[in-house]
Structure formats: structure tokens, C-alpha cells
Design a protein that fits this description.
6-stranded antiparallel β-sheet; 4 helices; Putative DNA-binding protein (MmcQ/YjbR family)
Length: 119
């Protein structure tokens, strides 16, 4: 996964914007104002913080030690830091980004979720 592909993937979801609320280096991808991914696209190795179901988070950390770890500077129960530098299959990274987006959308008020379903 390249930084450009990660950025394009995050921005491909409905109502997603890239913001820089913390510093000019940290891209924060939000859906309707709620974060679903945080990354420094210039960092090596490339990592991304993603929201995750707590049970899945533990399983993923066990299955991919050192590549998926508790979220750096995040709630460690609900966030993972995923190394996206090619050590994990791109397909898995894409699924984890999509799952993060879906979890955040599921937590939005119903009226906001319905806006996302419209063409």
C-alpha cells in the first residue's frame, strides 16, 4: 500500500474529507465530522490508526503481531495502528479501512446515515 493509494482509498468513501487538526503532517480522514483514519502519509513505515470492533481488534493483534498493535495515542480498546507498508496484504488493509469507516458511520445519528445512502 503506497501513501497515495491509502489516501485515495480513504477519500473514496461517501462524505469523507481529509483534515489536519493536529499538525500539518497528520492526515485525519473524517466522515461527517467523525474520524475513521489517522496517518502521517510521509512516515516510514507507513502506519494508519483505524477504528475497530474491540473483539476483532484483539484477534487482529494476535494474528499479526507487530503489524497490528493497539492504537497509538488512541483508545486502545477501539483503535488499532496498522502497518501499511506491504508487510500485510493490501486487501486486508483495504478491508480494515472500510471496516473503520463502517463502524463510524454506524455510530452516526440515523438522519446522518440516511444522507449517505442517497445518490
Amino acid at each position: 500500500m503506497t501513501p497515495a493509494r491509502l489516501r485515495a482509498l480513504c477519500l473514496s468513501f461517501d462524505a469523507t474529507v481529509e483534515d489536519f487538526p493536529f499538525n500539518p503532517e497528520t492526515s485525519v480522514f473524517k466522515v461527517l465530522g467523525k474520524m475513521f483514519a489517522l496517518t502521517n502519509l510521509d512516515a516510514r513505515p507507513l502506519t494508519v490508526n483505524l477504528k475497530c470492533d474491540p473483539d476483532d481488534a484483539l484477534r487482529l493483534r494476535t494474528d499479526h503481531p507487530g503489524l497490528i498493535v493497539p492504537g497509538y495515542h488512541m483508545n486502545k480498546r477501539h483503535w488499532n495502528t496498522v502497518t501499511a507498508d506491504g508487510a500485510l496484504p493490501d486487501r486486508l488493509v483495504r478491508e480494515l479501512v472500510e471496516d473503520s469507516y463502517d463502524l463510524v458511520v454506524a455510530g452516526l445519528p440515523r438522519a446522518e446515515r440516511l444522507k449517505l445512502d442517497r445518490a
